From TrEMBL:
<protein>
    <submittedName>
        <fullName>Rpn family recombination-promoting nuclease/putative transposase</fullName>
    </submittedName>
</protein>
<dbReference type="GO" id="GO:1990238">
    <property type="term" value="F:double-stranded DNA endonuclease activity"/>
</dbReference>
<feature type="domain" description="Transposase (putative) YhgA-like">
    <location>
        <begin position="90"/>
        <end position="205"/>
    </location>
</feature>
<dbReference type="InterPro" id="IPR051699">
    <property type="entry name" value="Rpn/YhgA-like_nuclease"/>
</dbReference>
<dbReference type="InterPro" id="IPR006842">
    <property type="entry name" value="Transposase_31"/>
</dbReference>
<dbReference type="GO" id="GO:0006310">
    <property type="term" value="P:DNA recombination"/>
</dbReference>
<dbReference type="Pfam" id="PF04754">
    <property type="entry name" value="Transposase_31"/>
</dbReference>
Length: 327
């Protein structure tokens, strides 16, 4: 069984891919959904109510005898099959890593070592430590560790997919070297049939990445699944798209939810278009006023007098200076 500890809320709101994706994935419904679809072909093997936070950092003893630490992106225990307890780890990648199999192998090995140390500590507390050379008793087993790598790139993964891909390896020694394949999911390349198997907000994420890869946002209008974790989804899209409009939609979407409306992909697409049009209109009006001010100044009117005549605010004047610098 995993160590007992209360679930803690995630407070980080850093706008980086390596943190924003974890905000969404840390919800048990999303985490379980990812595992069930991408590892178990959509079968409900992992139940969100039996998930507990796992250690994202594992301490292990390195070959030099010193303690080292491996940090996972996210880890959760599935406690539904007691005494069997599985540790699932998620690793998020925005770019293919040329050493990913070795990294995953290191995370998994550190997790197993962490499990061994917990068993040894429990044995010692119970007054029945195992022999020094054995470390744990022969009837004691470790919890399985399964790591899934989520790749959010828009081009195919071109890195190694197993340990053998990473090694200088001749055929005569290959049979003596155990391979270590990674469980890799290329989110933007998931098929529609696979995406439809998701029941959580990760389905929305998968459709969004597919649409970005195909440059086909019109397809998003056809997906009417209601959003659950609205703020986290908008932050997710903001970070990966680099588009401020996603953040600007947060307050408006929150108000619509308070009024009992549902947020869907169609809502998002329409709101982005509307936001873009409003910005375009606003920018057009501003540029017209900038040109009027510039014309008055060129005619010989003093700068301050022209600004007072057109009733320019201080903010508009700053915008005018930025605009003239770009002309």
């Amino acid at each position: 069984m995993p160590p007992a500890h209360p679930r803690q809320k995630k407070h980080s709101r850093k706008s980086r891919p390596d943190t924003v994706d974890k905000l969404l994935e840390a919800y048990p419904d999303v985490f379980a959904d990812i595992i069930n679809v991408l590892l178990y072909n959509g079968n409900t093997i992992v139940n969100p109510q039996f998930l507990t936070d796992g250690p994202s950092a594992a301490i292990y003893k390195a070959a030099d005898g010193f303690l080292r630490q491996k940090n996972r992106d996210l880890a959760m225990y599935d406690t539904s099959g007691s005494p069997l307890c599985i540790l699932y780890g998620l690793e998020n990648q925005t770019k293919p890593s040329p050493i990913m199999p070795a990294r995953v192998m290191g995370y998994d090995a550190a997790s197993y070592d962490h499990n061994i140390r917990l068993i040894k500590s429990r044995n010692l507390a119970e007054g029945r430590p195992a022999d020094y050379a054995m470390e744990i008793h022969s009837d004691q087993k470790l919890n399985p560790v399964i790591t899934l790598t989520l790749y959010f790139g828009l081009t195919p993964w071109n890195g190694p997919r197993c340990l053998h891909d990473l090694l200088f390896l001749s055929e005569d020694i290959k049979k003596f070297l155990p391979d270590y394949p990674i469980n890799l999911a290329e989110v933007a390349f998931l098929t529609p049939d696979t995406i439809e198997k998701f029941t959580s907000d990760f389905q929305i994420v998968a459709w969004w990445f597919r649409a970005r890869r195909l440059k086909n946002t019109d397809e998003l209008r056809t997906h009417q699944k209601e959003w659950i974790h609205v703020e986290e989804l908008l932050e997710f899209f903001y970070v990966f798209a680099g588009d401020d409009r996603y953040r600007e939609l947060k307050s408006g979407f929150a108000e619509r939810i308070r009024k009992g409306e549902s947020i869907t992909m169609c809502t998002l697409v329409d709101s982005l278009i509307e936001e873009g049009m409003e910005k375009g209109i606003s920018q057009g009006i501003a540029q017209t006023r900038y040109r009027d001010l510039a014309a008055l100044i060129r005619s010989g009117m003093p700068h301050e007098q022209a600004a007072r005549l057109l009733e320019f605010s201080q903010e508009e004047l700053e915008g005018f200076h930025q605009w003239t610098a770009l002309q």
